[in-house]
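Researcher: I need the complex structure. Ligand is zinc ion. Inputs:
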Amino acid sequence: MTPPYCAVCGKDFRGEYFHTGNGGELIRFADYLPLLEGSVGMPAGAAWFCRSHVDAARSLCALIQKDALDSLRQLFGQFSPPIPGPMRDPELWVIVAGANLGAVARLVRSASGWTPAQAHERIKAGPFLLISGWPSELARWEALLREAGATTEIRYP
Ligand SMILES: [Zn+2]
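Model: Output:
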C-alpha cells in the first residue's frame, strides 16, 4: 500500500492516519482489484483522499479510478505533487492558557524547557506549539494542562 497522500491535493496525512486512523480514507472505485494474498503494493482502482476530498471521491466511487480522478481534478483544480519527506510527529498546541496562569506557565516550562520569560511571551502571544512527540507523551502533558485550566489541541502537521 502506498502511504496516505491525498490523490487530489497531495496532502500528506501519514502522521494522523498512523496514530489515529483518521485524516482521510482509502476509496475503492469500480475497477478496484484487491491484492493477491501475500502480495504487497497498492491495489488497482483504489486511492487515498484527505478529509477535505474524501466525500467528493466517495460520491464518484461507481466510476473507474481514472474517470473519478479526472472529474475530481476538474472540480478542485490541479495541485502540485506531494513532496516526500519524513513522517512528522503530532503536536501539542496550547490554544488558551486560562485563568490559572501560574500553574499553566510552570507546566509549559517543564514540557518545553523554556525560561520563564520565554514561556510568558508564548502564552501572551496566543495559540502556540508546545511540543511534538508521540501521542502517549503528548497525552500526559495535555491532561496536566487541562487540569490546570488550559485549552489544548493535538495537531497533525
Ligand atoms: Zn486532499
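Model: Summary of the prediction. The chain has a mean pLDDT of 93.
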